[in-house]
């Protein structure tokens, strides 16, 4: 394999999977398998040489097709027909597929959003409704990963509506507010999946419930803050102050949430605000404790208080004064405080 320029990584040998890296591009290769035992979360598999047996364990008919090197299509469950009809359908009985792995209920909505038509498969929706409680068998991390993929995908408003009809949405997010997500989507911008999650469930505790990363939980907490207030009429000083309090990425995210809250219609003013936030150089307070010591302050709490006062003055000036200006202001203030 190495002589052919192929590097192989054993990424999932227990499930018969390796990753072949060819010209720096990874390709996942999995041998044919059949399920020996399933528990709603994981499957015990055995190897097989029967392509139809392998296809029978797939979730949807459109995922059960295979193509050989000569271009011959193997389609045992009419996946091509379903794909052309924009029909997302489980292989075999929908209820059985979900009982084997409850995550397939969530995957149905992701595939329906991308490949499905206006009328979803009735059997699938009925099976999902009947097996919502099976989601409790899954790890929160698997649920969160699939949910964020749905939130990043197309046709989101109708997809969330369908999830609500089946009861799965409230099972996963009891405090879900689809109207909030609808208002955000009406802004017609490229919002991140995390922003859409907050619009759908506007409580930063959702990050803890879904066991998101610390970075993601921090962003959700920032979305919930009332300050700095973001409005299109902000001047550059306001934007610089905001950039000190929150990162550029968080502020951009919050403009989408603010736009949805104040006015869901697309407005150039909000787009201009996002461009201005991105264009401003990140302000950095130029003083440190060493500057205070150079001016005669002794290390300790008093030094920290003076640096804090200098920073407040710097922010009040729109974060524009340089190091020399901040040093001059601090030096002028010290005698009056003796």
From TrEMBL:
InterPro entries: Bact_CCA-adding_enz_type3_sf, NT_sf, PolA_pol_head_dom, PolyA_RNA-bd. Pfam families: PolyA_pol, PolyA_pol_RNAbd. Its cofactor is Mg(2+). Residues 122-177 form the tRNA nucleotidyltransferase/poly(A) polymerase RNA and SrmB- binding domain. GO terms for molecular function: nucleotidyltransferase activity. Residues 9-89 form the Poly A polymerase head domain. Gene3D superfamilies: Beta Polymerase, domain 2 (3.30.460.10), cca-adding enzyme, domain 2 (1.10.3090.10). Keywords: Magnesium, Metal-binding, Nucleotide-binding, Nucleotidyltransferase, RNA-binding, Transferase, tRNA processing. The keyword Glycoprotein does not apply. Belongs to the tRNA nucleotidyltransferase/poly(A) polymerase family. PANTHER family: CCA TRNA NUCLEOTIDYLTRANSFERASE 1, MITOCHONDRIAL (PTHR46173). This is Polynucleotide adenylyltransferase. It comes from Saccharibacter floricola DSM 15669.
